[in-house]
Amino acid sequence: MEQLSPTPRTTGTRESERAVADRRRLLALLDDALIAHLGAVVQRDGVTHPVVLPVAFAVDVEGPDEGGTLYLHGSTGAGWLRSALETDVCVTVTELDGLVAARSGFNHSMNYRSAVVIGRARLVEDADERGHALDLIVDHMIPGRSATLRAPTRKELAATAVLAVPLREASMKERAGAPEDEPEDVATGVWAGHIPLRRIAGPPVTAPDTDREVPDDVRSRAAALG
Amino acid sequence: MEQLSPTPRTTGTRESERAVADRRRLLALLDDALIAHLGAVVQRDGVTHPVVLPVAFAVDVEGPDEGGTLYLHGSTGAGWLRSALETDVCVTVTELDGLVAARSGFNHSMNYRSAVVIGRARLVEDADERGHALDLIVDHMIPGRSATLRAPTRKELAATAVLAVPLREASMKERAGAPEDEPEDVATGVWAGHIPLRRIAGPPVTAPDTDREVPDDVRSRAAALG
Q1: SS3 of residue B132 by DSSP
Q2: For residue B171, what is the domain's CATH number?
Q3: Is the dihedral angle over the CA atoms B162, B168, B169, B172 positive or is it negative?
Q4: pLDDT tens-digit readout, B78-123
Q5: CA distance A108 to chain B (A)
Q6: What's the pLDDT score for residue A85?
Q7: Are residues B60 and B167 in contact, defined by beta-carbon separation less than 8 angstroms?
Q8: B1-22: per-residue pLDDT in tens?
Q9: B47, B149, B200, B219: which to substitute to probe chain A, counting the most A Cβ within 10 Å?
Q10: What is the domain range of residue A206?
Q11: Total Cβ atoms within 10 A of residue A102
Q12: Would you call A90 and B51 a contact, using CB atoms and an 8 Å cutoff?
């Protein structure tokens, strides 16, 4: 199994028993998850602060960047875009799998899978790579959908920035299962356990301005998430 | 209805039609959501980069900070903690409500609710406020749970940092419903619509080292999320 390349920036300094240096599990998480949280550093009026925004994304494991490529897109007019190109970015993808009720507040926790990718974002300028990345982002939402759509117009392409972040510097943490209590707390007889959580899809909702049947790709996606 | 106090940092520069300056909806989202993504700015070896981590949180609308208080906690040994106290932080809370399949890739979108809070985190040092914040974080996961648990030990308290972020500088964006397509795309007859998504809980799973019945607070929480 391939290994991630953790660095001091992506290696947790605590709870290293939860650090799972396992590229296959990282890619499986990135495949499961539907949104990422993009962090950038903003400099405004001499003050530095982070900004964190939810974004759509897609991964090309065969992408041109070392370790594969994570693609993001946004409006060329978005304020965060310039910031995201001026320093490294952090892209974090988290799936919440459960609430962990221990016998002490201290040992309460969550079951989750979380990937943290840090790197310098590259503004994708090659037309073929841009088109490929935008198709991947649509197909990450609904596999097969991009092939059923018209090509983007010049105006749409001019309004869209595509960023590529290398998957080289990435780490993953996860927690699963029962709480871990102190032996003296187990003896108190307080109930402990966890509440599993998962995301489900409802049936596709057809837009009011069409009378077409739900296509197979959309039906399959809803069923797979269902 | 109270209004948020948006600033240039929390006011979206794009898609302002989606910006919902509505405090009540912001607080409802913070009540619904179970995790936040905390962004901090890290300075390491002369390089500045953001870090974004999933965290548990709770809100005290009557908290001591302007606009109310958002509480976070972490290990005092965590590397991100010092960074989070050195510059402003960004706390982003997102609930994904659906996948929006338009007739063009460009108009594909997500249905979501997302709150962005930017501010200077305060390290909570008052013992009463620390205890209150830690109880709120447990009760945000499972309402009523903290009252059934022993008090934290001195050692646990010494290992736990509690951060307070004012809810003053906060914004919310949301999207719901059908895609918005160009008129010429509607005419093409491609199906459009959305796939609703939601989080559900399974039945509580009792830890292997207890034979107690699932308590009412845990059962109610699972049912409410169910």
Answers
A1: helix
A2: 2.30.110.10
A3: positive
A4: 888 899 999 999 999 999 999 999 999 999 999 999 999 999 999 9
A5: 7
A6: 94
A7: no
A8: 233 445 556 655 444 444 445 7
A9: B149
A10: 196-226
A11: 24
A12: yes
Q: Average pLDDT for residues B212-222, to the nearest whole number?
A: 97
Q: Are residues A161 and A219 in the same domain?
A: no
**Tokens 């903003």 -> residue:** A42
Res. A123: pLDDT tops 90: yes
Asked if A194 lies within 8 A of B214 by C-beta distance, the reply is no
Quote the minimal CA–CA distance from B117 to chain A in Å: 9
A188 inside domain: no
Contacts of B92 in chain A (CB under 8 A): 37, 52-54
Provide the pairing of β-strand A193-201 with B193-201.
antiparallel
ipTM associated with this complex: 0.92
Using CA atoms, how far residue B55 sits from A6, A112, A114, B58, B171, in Å, is 21, 11, 11, 10, 19
Contact across the interface for B34 and A89, Cβ inside 8 Å: no
**Residues of B with CB below 8 A from A153's CB?**
106
Burial class (CB in 10 A: 0-12, 13-18, 19+), A184: exposed
| A122 inside domain | yes
CA atoms within 13 A on the CB side of A30: 27
Residues from chain A contacting residue B197 (CB–CB below 8 Å):
34, 199-202, 225
Shortest Cα distance, chain B CAs vs residue A223, angstroms: 10
A54/B114 touch (CB, cutoff 8 Å), yes or no = yes
**B38 domain-assigned:** yes
Give the best residue of B106, B137, B142 to mutate against chain A (max A CB count within 10 A). Answer: B106
